[in-house]
């Protein structure tokens, strides 16, 4: 993302999903949203998103840049 403040904006958007309260703590949040929904939120904040482990796409981890 272009500016660090955009991560705060993304966090606020993710808080609206079921399980989004996990964004308030450290660790891996468990948000009840599809990959498409999460990607749309990241793109709406100007970020890029893709698989975290290209060698093992079933892992499910994602990176937000």
Report strand %: 5-15%
**Averaged pLDDT:** 77
Major sheet description: 2 strands, antiparallel
Order of helices and strands: HHEE
Question: How many domains make up the coordinates?
Answer: 1
Name the strands of the widest sheet in spatial order.
Answer: 1-2
Spans where pLDDT lies below 50 across 5 or more residues: none
The number of helices is 2
**Total E-strand runs:** 2
Q: Considering DSSP H and I runs of 4 or more, what fraction of the residues is helical?
A: 25-40%
N-C termini distance: 6 Å
- Principal-axes shape call: globular
By oligomeric state, this entry counts as single chain
Structure, described:
The protein has 65 residues and is α+β, with helices and mostly antiparallel strands. The chain has one domain (5-64). It has helices at 5-14, 35-44; strands at residues 49-51, 62-64. It has a two-stranded antiparallel sheet with strand order 1-2. The longest helix has 10 residues, at 5-14. The radius of gyration is 12 Å and the shape is globular. It starts with a helix and ends with a strand.
Quick take:
The protein has 65 residues and is of the alpha+beta class.
Q: What does the secondary structure layout of this molecule look like, with pairings?
A:
Layout lengths: L4 H10 L20 H10 L4 E3 L10 E3 L1
Antiparallel strand pairs: 1-2
What key attributes describe this structure?
two-stranded antiparallel sheet, 2 strands, alpha+beta, globular, 2 helices, 65 residues
